[in-house]
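To whoever is covering the structure queue this week,

Two jobs came back overnight. Logging them here so there's a record in the thread.

Job A:
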Amino acid sequence: MTEAAPDMSVAPVKARTDRLQAGLKARYARERRFKLYGVMAIAVAVGFLLLLLGRIIEQGHTAFYAHELTIPVYMDPARIDRTYPQGTNFQLLVAEQQLARFGITDDAQGTQATAMRTLLSSELKFRAAAMIRENPALIGQTVPVTAPVSDEADLYYKGEITAETPSDQRRVSDQQMAWLDQLKSDGAVQAKFNSALFQNGDSTEPEQAGVLGAVVGSALMLLVTALIAIPIGVGAAVYLEEFSPRNRLTDLIEVNINNLAAVPSIVYGLLGVALFINWMNLPRSSPLVGGLVLALMALPTIIIATRSSLKAVPPSIREAALAMGASKTQTVFQHVLPLAMPGVMTGTIISMAHALGETAPLLLIGMVSFVPGIPGGLTEPTGALPSLVYIWENASERAFHERTAAAILVLLAFMIVMNAAAILLRRRFERRW
C-alpha cells in the first residue's frame, strides 16, 4: 500500500494568509495613527483658541466694571454761578471739601487739592452741573454726588496698581493711595457695572471711553458693504457661471477675480483713498467710504464662493428644467440658484466676517482719527471696532489696555451674532428647498 503524498500547497497558502493579515494589521494601525493625529491636531487648535480667549478675557474682564465715588458736596453759592453752573470747577470744590473731612490743611499753592482732584473723573463736573441746572434750589445745600473715579484710581482699586509698583510706572502717589483706602473704608466707593463702556463713544479719558460709536460705525459700514457686495457679487457669479460664453475674455476675468481675492487689504485701502476720497470727494472717515472699500474687498470672495455653489448643483436639475420647457433664466433663478443658496450664504458669511475684522484699509481712509461722538448717518465721521482696538492699544494710559481687550470681546460678540443670524437664514433656505 502506498503512503499518501503530503499536500505541498498548504504552506504557501498559509504564508500568503499571514502576509495578508500582517498587511491588514499595518493598515489598521496606520488608520488609527491617522485618527490620533487628527484628534491631536484638533486638540492643539482648540487649546490655542482657548488660550487666546482666556488671555483676552483675563485682561479685559476688569473693564466691564468700574468704581464710583459717592460723596456729599456742599453747593457753595459763592463759587457756583446759577446761570452758568457748568463753568464751576466742581472737581476742585469737591477735592477741597474732601481734604477738610480728612482734616488735611492745604498749602498756599493748593498742592494737596490738586493731588486729590486727580483722583476724580472729569465726569463729576458734568453730573454736578446737570444737577444744578435741573434744580437750582440745590445751591446752598449739601447733596450726594456720584461719579466715577479717575482711571489711575480705578486701576488701584482693581489691583492693577499697588504700593509695590515702581513709582515711575504709576501716577498715584503713596499719599493718594492712602486717601483712596480711606474713601473705600468710609463706604464712599463702590464697584458697579461699567455702563459707560456701552453707552459712550471714544474719549481721551479711559474711564469715560466707550465702544458705542465704534459699534454703530461698524454696523453702518457692514450695511453698506452688504447692500453693494452681495447683489453685485452674486449677480456677477451667476452671469459668469451660467450665461457668459467661454472665451479668452471670460478666462481673463476669472483669473483676475482669483488674484483679487489674494490682494492684501491695505491695497484696497489705497484704492479707496484714491477713488472715493480724492476723486469722488466723499467724506473721509465716513461709514459710506468704509463700506465701499470693504465691499470691493469682499466681492472676490462672494463671487468665488457663489460660482463654486452653482457648480455643485447637479446638471440633471438644469436638464430637467429645460426639458420641461423652462427658459434659461427660469432654470437658473427658479431651480439652480435656490439650490445653491446655502453655499452662497456661506460665502457671504465668510466675506462679511472678514470685512468686519479688517483694520488696514480703515486706517488709510482716516478711521484712525479720534471721533468722540456717535455717528448719525452714513456721511458723518466715525470709528470702527478694529480701528478702535488699534487706537486704544497704542494709547499711553494703562487703563486703555484693559478696554482694548474688552473691545476685542465686543467685536467677537458682534461677529458671533452676525454669523448666527446668517446661519439661521441659510438654514431657512435649506429647509425651504
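Job B:
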Amino acid sequence: MSALDSGTAERRRQFAEEARSERPDLALLCLLLGAEAGPVGPAEVRPVTPGEAVPDPYGIDAAQIELDRLAGLLPYGSRSPAAWASTLAELLGGRCGFGGSSVDYQRLDSSLLQQVLRRRRGLPILLSVVWIEVARRAGAPVYGVALPGHFVVGFGDREQPLLADPFAGGAPLTGQDAELLVTGATGAALEPSMMTPARPLEIVLRILNNVRAWAAARPERTDVALWAVELSLLLPSHPARLRFERAQLLVQRGEFLRGAAEMEEYAEILDGIEPTTAENIRRKAHAARALLN
C-alpha cells in the first residue's frame, strides 16, 4: 500500500478487519469507504483552530445515527413484505426524498454513503444500501438484489421476492419490470441466479467498481482510483488483476520504482498461468523504470 497517515491507516485496518468478520457490517464498510474521499460536515465549511478537536470529521458516527433515526420513524408493528416496501417508499422516497437521476451518475459523492444520506441523492446501489440498513434496523426481511446495471432491494420470500427500486423513490418492480431492466442493461434475459440476495462484500466491491469507473473517466483523479483499488485489495475476495491496476496507477502518479516493482511481482504470479501476459507486464515494468532516466 501507499504510505498512509495514521488516521487513514487505522480506518483501513478497521475496513479489512470488518470485511473479514463473520458477519460484515454493510453500513460500516460503506462509511469507511466514504471516509477515503475526505472530511465531511463542519470541517469542510469553516476553518479549524489549531489544536481544536473536530468530532467525527468523516461523518461515520453521524451517518449511523441518521440511519437509526430514519429506522425510528417507521411505524411499529409486524407487516407483510408488500407493506414493508410500501411503508419504506412512503418514508424514504416520499417524506425524505431519497432518489436518483442520470445526473447522479456523474458525481463521486453518489457513491459515498455519508453524502447520500446528506444529499438524499445517489446511485441505485447506495440508495439501496440506505433502504437495506434502515429496514434491517426496523426488523424487515430485506436484502439487496444485484440486477445487472441496476441494483434494487427485495423483501420476503427469496424465491419470489417483492422488489422495489430505491432509485425511483421505491417504486415497486414486477417480474416483467426486472426483466426489462436486465434486458436493457445486458441484452440478455433475466436469469434466476440474478435474483440471489447480494452479500455485503459483494455490494461493497460493486460500489468500489463504480468508484473506479468514475475515476477512469477522469484521468486527473488517479487519487480516487488508487484508494478504490487499495480498498478492493483489502477484501477477502477480489480480482487478482487489481494488483496490476494498482501498479499502473502508481506509475501514473510518478511512483515509478514502486509501480515497476509491483508489476514484476504480479508477473511472477502469472508466469505459470499466462507466460505471454507475464512477459508483457515485465516490459511495462522496464518502461516504468526507464522513466526515471
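Note for Job B: The chain is about 55% helix and 5% strand.

Please reply-all if you pick these up so we don't duplicate work.
Q.
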